[in-house]
Amino acid sequence: MDVKILIVGVGGQGTVLASKIIGEAAQLAGLDVKQSEVHGMAQRGGSVVTHVKFGDDVYSPLVEPGQADYVLAFEQLEGLRWISHLAASGKLICSTQQIMPMPVITGAAKYPEDIESKFREAGVDYLMLDAIDTAGRLGEKRAANVVLLGALARHLEIGREIWQQAIRNVVKKRAVDVNLQAFDCGWNC
Q1: What is the pTM of this model?
Q2: What domains can you pick out in the chain, each with its CATH number?
Q3: Which of 35, 48, 118, 156 is deepest in the core (most CB within 10 A)?
Q4: How confident is the model over 88-112, as pLDDT tens digits?
Q5: Which is it for the CA torsion 105, 94, 54, 147, positive or negative?
Q6: What residues does 75 pair with on adjacent strands?
């Protein structure tokens, strides 16, 4: 059985790094992995979506609407935009962070109020996590992506030690320790 994950966020939040860690962990676990990234108009500030699938035999990286086992959302509005990709039994893991898109900044649109209530109304199984605050307490807000990754990883059938090795393999050496701490915070949330 394949595991299908959609990682969504805004450029600069570390969605691509998170997908690389997931891919590395799955490979270390002996699984077949496929990934695909879609970047928005702006490298920083634009929408970023990464599809990751792993299992015994994976043929396509794309996660179709209604098929994601997990949507890992690094920003609330992005989580709302992509919940249609969740399978009926899927789970949304979402940061409480809100990043105003350009239409909101220019006054052409409003940021939706109380997005969490929209998740409830949609009947979504979800976890909201203040990953920025958690990572900030570790002294590195940029590790929020790995806090969220830890919250996801505890639901997957890949051992904690494998995830830790994947972080060591993928993250720059100077940032390994704080990212391991961030992962543990997410895993234990």
Answers
A1: 0.93
A2: 3-187 (3.40.920.10)
A3: 48
A4: 999 999 999 999 988 888 999 999 9
A5: positive
A6: none
